[in-house]
Amino acid sequence: MAWSIAEVARMSGVTSRTLRHYDEIGLLPPARTGSNGHRYYEEADLLRLQQILLMRELDLGLREIQAVLDSQVDRVAVLREHHRRLRAERDRLETLVRTVGRTLAELEEHEEGSGMTKINRPENLFEGFESARPDAEAEVRERWPAAWERTQQVVAAMSAEDMERWQREVTAQMIRLAEFMVAGTPVADPAVQAEMDVHYQGICRFWTPNAEAYKGLGRTYSDDPQFRANYDKIAEGLADYQRDAMVVYADARLS
C-alpha cells in the first residue's frame, strides 16, 4: 500500500514542504514518484519517518540523523532505546505532576488558615526533578587554568560557521563510536583507537592535555550529567565506552 505526500503529512503532522525537503536532501526519498510528479510513500518510508521524528525529539540535526539511518546500527535496537528513554521521561513527568499536585493541595489546605503554610515533608517538593549539574567548567578552570584560558580564546575566535562545523564533526565521531560499541568492538581495538587519535587531535585545537588530563576529560564525559545526556542521545553507555577508550589511548600514547 502506498500513501500520497498529503496523506503522510496528515498522518504525521509533518508538512508537505518538509517532506519534499527531506526528499531533496536524500533523508526520506519516496518509494516512487508518479508521472504527475506526486510522491508516494510505503510502509518502510513511514517507519523511517518515525525514526527521523524520534531523533528530532532528541535534538539531533538532519545530517546526524542521516548518518545514523545510513549506518549499520541495528534499527530495532535503536528504536528500542528510544522507547526506553521516552518511557523514562514519561515516568519522570508523571512524578513531577504528582509533586506539583501534592504541593498545590497542601498550599490550598492552608490558604484559608493562619497564613502560615506547613509542608509536611519538604523533600517531597523536589521529587522528580533532574539532579543539578555540577559545575564542570569551574573544575576545569581550577585544575587546568592555562588550558581553560587557551580554550576560551580559541572559541571566541571561531565564527558561527566554524562552531557549527566543529559540532557536526563531534557528533559524527560520537555516531562512529556508537557503531563500534553496538558491534561489541573492544576499546583497545586499533579502529577505536584511531578514532581516539582523531578525538585527541581535535582537543588539541583548544588545549594539549597530558595523559592525566585526557583521562580526566573522559571521566567528565561519563560523570557529568549534561555530558552523559548528550552521549546517551546517541546510544546509552557511549560515555563510558569513550571514557574507557580514552584511558587506553592515554596509557599507550600520552604516558
From TrEMBL:
Question: Cytoplasm: is it a keyword of this entry?
Answer: no
**Highest taxon in the source lineage:** Bacteria
Recorded hits in InterPro entries, A to Z, give:
DNA-bd_dom_put_sf (IPR009061), MerR-type_HTH_dom (IPR000551), MerR_fam (IPR047057), TipA-like_antibiotic-bd (IPR036244), TipAS_dom (IPR012925)
Instruction: List, alphabetically, the SUPFAM superfamilies matched.
Output: Antibiotic binding domain of TipA-like multidrug resistance regulators, Putative DNA-binding domain
Task: Recall the GO molecular function terms of this protein's record.
Answer: DNA binding; DNA-binding transcription factor activity
Q: Which UniProt keywords apply?
A: Activator, DNA-binding, Transcription, Transcription regulation
Residues annotated as domain HTH merR-type: 2-71
Q: What is this protein called?
A: HTH-type transcriptional regulator SkgA
What taxonomic lineage is listed for the species of origin? Bacteria, Bacillati, Actinomycetota, Actinomycetes, Kitasatosporales
